[in-house]
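Q: A reviewer asked whether we had any structural model of the full assembly, not just the individual parts. We don't, so I'm hoping you can provide one. Inputs are below.
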Amino acid sequence: MAGVQRGPRERMVFSAAQLIRHDGVGATGMRDVAEHANAPRGSLQHYFPGGKEQLVGEAVAWAGRYAGGRVARFMADLAEPTPSALFAAMVRQWTDEYETAGVLGGCPVAAATVDCAASEATREAAAAAFTTWRGPVAEALTELGVPAERAEPLATLMISSLEGAIIMARAEGDVRPLTTVARELGPLLDAAVPPDDRRGEA
Amino acid sequence: MAGVQRGPRERMVFSAAQLIRHDGVGATGMRDVAEHANAPRGSLQHYFPGGKEQLVGEAVAWAGRYAGGRVARFMADLAEPTPSALFAAMVRQWTDEYETAGVLGGCPVAAATVDCAASEATREAAAAAFTTWRGPVAEALTELGVPAERAEPLATLMISSLEGAIIMARAEGDVRPLTTVARELGPLLDAAVPPDDRRGEA
DNA sequence: ACCTTTCCATGACAGCGGTCATAGTAGCCG
DNA sequence: CGGCTACTATGACCGCTGTCATGGAAAGGT
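A: Here is a predicted structure for the entire assembly that you could use as a starting point for your response.
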């Protein structure tokens, strides 16, 4: 993802997100995070006095911001400005990872949600992350001509389908669910923009 | 769910599925499973010599069979035989649980997929579970008049959206994503059955 | 009665988890 | 230099986990 080498603190948050989305929250240890980030273990308690809960929370928040930010970049690169093309780009981010890395990673936010039972704070962080992801998607949809009252529901549908397809794809070890979802959902998304708006938005 | 009290072995598999979907795979201990099932701890090593991996695998398989079996029951109870009604019933199973239990549980299969990194066997069990779930859904769709070649893809879309919505709903602590997905996806599903088949299937 | 199989009980072990306590280093300000 | 703050290092603690070893109870067949 964004492989820039910022300060140790930022690297640790980033590494935490990486490890969480790969192994799950419970299976990622603090020591692993420090090692993966090439950061001193002693820094953990200095930068994250709130312990693992804080680290996980920041990792999830980071993932939410990242996902939201990607939407803007996708919009800029769209060959044709349609909702289905945006969704296809969102899906392609995941299939591309499979092609290059050979493995299908998961979504840190979903991982945090699945074993959030221990910590209410983590659940709230995940909820916030979904919100900061859904917002830009809904905005993008309205930019693409989707009526305002349908933008939020459709954004929810897009993210839900994507998250579910990621899980199924990981289980099967194949991108099929991802590509299927992109193909099947496309027409519905495009049908949401009124005919007089087709081919014309900024 | 199916609260029948069978033998201790079956109870333990059932309890494992319950705990996994609530806490995640890593966070559910073998001792917890035995206690939750009112089963002796010593039975674990007797019934599941394969250890936790075996228990998790059977719990996931059980969940897959359960989900697949539910589809048939949903079909029998449908007020009107449309794909959207089937999907609504699938979604309602989860919103109902929220109404009664006050908490939103997760899906054991999704939970197993998320932290399956440690065990390839678990990943395969999850894949198998998704297959034994998707099969009945696709069959039901064809029974409802969906052309054969679209049944499987649409089943994948339905399950993906449902799984994703479950996760978002858990994070937000609200059923909104579930109801939204059901409402938004309904028209697409019904549109898949050709006009000359509307109102007529067995 | 006796023995075999199935099932249950319990305690021990080794490993790893997060967290705390303590102490050391680097840099900057006076 | 002294003192202060930011950061790093390391080791110890306690709790928990899955697993194993050993031994005890039923049960049922002969």
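A: Points you may want to mention in the reply: The domain at 8-191 of chain B is CATH 1.10.357.10 (Tetracycline Repressor; domain 2). Chain B touches chain A through 47 residues (CB under 8 Å).
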